[in-house]
Amino acid sequence: MCMGNICRSPTAESLFRHHATEAGLLDAFDIDSAGTGGWHAGDPPDGRMHEAAMERGIELVGQARQIVHEDLNRFHHVLCMDGDNLQGVLQLGEGSAAVSLMLSHHQPSGLEDVPDPYYGGASGFAHVVELLDVACRNLLQDLIDRHELEA
Question: How does residue 150 score in pLDDT terms, banded at 50, 70 and 90?
Answer without folding.
Answer: confident
